[in-house]
Each structure stands twice: as C-alpha cells, then as structure tokens.
Specification:
The protein is mostly beta strands and 360 residues long. It has three domains: 86 residues, Immunoglobulins (Immunoglobulin-like), CATH 2.60.40.10; 76 residues, Sandwich (Immunoglobulin-like); 136 residues, Sandwich (Jelly Rolls), CATH 2.60.120. 5% of the residues lie in helices and 47% in strands. It is built from one helix and 29 strands. The protein has an eight-stranded mixed β-sheet, with no helix packed on it.
C-alpha cells in the first residue's frame, strides 16, 4: 500500500512544479517546430530580434536565458513573426530561447548573445558629401556596414572604440545606423546632411580639429593646448553640461586670479589661414551663474575680439576677425585662443562645446 500511494503523490508534486516553471521541458507540449529561425544568427543586449515561424500569435511571453519579455512589450507580433527588444541584462554566450504559448505549449530554441555595437557620440554633427564623420563608442569591430537612411556609407577606419566613415552623396538627415552580425543599432542624435539642409550654420566645416572636444583622455583635449590656468579647465561628460555629444570643456573660474583675460587660455593647433580675410569663431557656451565673460584671440599675431557675456542658457557666440573690424588675421598659420578670464572677479563655471573657426 505504501508503494502505491507514494508513486501517485510524487507524480502530483512533480506535475505541479512543472506547471509553475516555464523553463522546464517536461510535462509541457513541445511545439518547437513553430520557431523556424531568427532575423540574426546572433544578437546583443538591447538589439531588436525577430523570431520567425508559424502560429505565433498566441505567444504570451518569451525568455532569453533568464530574462523575460511579456507580450505587451513585444515590438510587433504576427502569425509568422514576433519582434522584441532583447533585454539589456541578458547574459553573454549561448542562451536558451523559450516561447511560452497559452496552456502547456512551449517552443524551444537557442541563440548566441554577443556584445553589441553602440554609439556614444560622433563628430561633426553635420556633414557634406565626402566629409569624414568620426564615431565614438564600443564594439565597433563588430560593425559590418554603416547606413544613413537607405544610403550606405564607406567605412574608412575601424577599431573597437572608434569608427570613421565618409558622408555619402544623397544621405538624408537622420540617425546613423550601424549594422552587425548581432543586429542593428542607431545613434541617439541625428547627423545633419548639409545637402538635405543647406544654409544651416552648423554646415561650414571648421578649420580647427576636435571642435566638439570629443577626442582626448582625462582632462586633456586632442588638438588643443592649455596655455595658462590649465588646472581651471577640465572635461565634463555630465549631460546637462554638454551641448551635444559625450564631452565638453568645463572652465571653473573661482575669482582668485588677477585681471587679464589671458590668465585662463586654451589654444587650438595651428591651422592654415589667409591674411586679411574675414574669419569667425563660433562656439556654444553657457555659465553656471550669469556675470562672467570671455573672448577669443589669435596666436602668433595676437589679434583680439571683445569680451562677450555668457548666460545660464546655451547660446551660440560668434567672434569675428576681419579687416572691417580692424583685427584681421595677418598670418598664414593661426591658433584660435579661448580667453576665459574676462571680468575676472565673477565667480562662475563656463561650459563650452563645438568651437569652430570658419572662413567667411
């Protein structure tokens, strides 16, 4: 009697446990034939993944490894396709894919999860056909193609953290799409096509390099040198302190320096210029507290613009060197020098981004 009672009781306990566990492969109806494949042979955390098959409309939820996507969070669902966003917490490696249908029906498959390419920033933010666009991010070695809309771009150099491509003819304004074996990803910001949006101020190419301060390590910026007051100038990646991209210049002015705009200076590398031609330096700037001012000068011929006040909201400032203004550049090679100690007694912090020297 004990043996007869013991076996049914264990089966009842086992069946109950299976009914509560979506991942158990026994005591369910295996309908794995409904899943015929995936949109990509591999996937990555955060990528969109499409499951192909048949009779998929009744799917209630999908597991990738231990991570669950509920039906209400599916991107789309038809009888032959379900598209989901792969959970960002999914583990790398080969993961089981479990499609849970109503009742006891379950479909089983597996897919490899690999690191996914991601754009943190790029420069410039507007480009003409033939201009080089530089992307910063991670896992760019996985990228096989770059597109702007339906237009393909030519990749000119590629490493895990930096990718360069040539702006293609006919490209629209929009997100930059990176295509890889694990799926496609888009930049958060739009790249403006100057051909599609002529006349906007962002489109003229800056003569200086690293205009957005994106390239550099720590508190240093490639193609820029700290001439004076270097400890007052640092990088910031705080979103509210960056006009666009991932990094900006932060100038912490504490009011302890003596007068003289030159006491805090950041200078660009030398660029080719023409004597007695009009040039303008544009920049985006804001301050933590109103009342501070800054200017732009040049080296080696030491021409100056007037100081301009910086408000607490992002604004585009313009500093012009021209024969009409009596401060025309007189040399064939010039450095743009940003002078931050105007109105030196004003205690404030400047945030500076997208500094461009443009020939008028």
């Amino acid at each position: 009697m004990k043996k007869k009672l013991f076996i049914p009781l264990m089966l009842l306990i086992l069946f109950s446990a299976c009914a509560d566990e979506d991942g158990i492969t026994y005591s369910v109806k295996d309908v794995s034939a409904r899943v015929t494949g995936f949109s990509n042979s591999k996937t990555g955390a955060g990528a969109q993944l499409t499951i192909n098959g048949s009779q998929l409309l009744d799917a209630q939820r999908i597991f990738i490894g231990n991570e669950r996507v509920l039906a209400r969070n599916f991107v789309s669902k038809t009888d032959s396709e379900i598209t989901i966003n792969v959970p960002t917490t999914v583990a790398l490696g080969v993961n089981r894919v479990l499609v849970v249908f109503s009742g006891s029906e379950r479909a089983f498959s597996e897919i490899e999860v690999v690191p996914l390419q991601a754009v943190s920033s790029f420069t410039p933010y507007s480009a003409t056909a033939g201009e080089t666009v530089t992307l910063f991010g991670v896992n760019f070695d996985l990228v096989t193609a770059v597109k702007l809309g339906d237009v393909s771009a030519t990749i000119t150099s590629q490493s895990p953290t930096l990718l360069k491509f040539t702006m293609p003819t006919g490209a629209p304004t929009g997100k930059i799409t990176l295509i890889g074996a694990a799926g496609n990803t888009n930049s958060a910001d739009n790249l403006t096509s100057c051909a599609a949006s002529p006349g906007i101020l962002d489109c003229p190419v800056g003569l200086n390099l690293n205009t957005g301060f994106e390239v550099g390590s720590g508190d240093n910026f490639d193609n820029w040198s700290k001439y004076n007051g270097g400890t007052y100038m640092v990088q910031t990646s705080v979103p509210s302190e960056v006009f666009r991209g991932a990094r900006a210049l932060k100038v912490v002015r504490d009011g302890t320096l003596a007068s003289g705009e030159w006491r805090i200076q950041l200078a660009s590398d030398l660029v080719a210029t023409e004597a007695n031609v009009s040039y303008t330096v544009y920049m985006w700037a804001k301050a933590s507290v109103a009342g501070g001012s800054l200017r732009v000068s040049t080296a080696p011929d030491a021409k100056y613009t007037g100081n301009q006040n910086v408000t607490t909201q992002w604004q585009r400032l313009a500093f012009t060197f021209s024969p009409a203004g009596g401060n025309a550049i007189a040399t064939t090679e010039t450095r743009v020098v940003l002078d931050f100690n105007g109105n030196n007694a004003a205690v404030t912090t400047f945030y500076i981004d997208d500094v461009k020297l443009i020939k008028n």
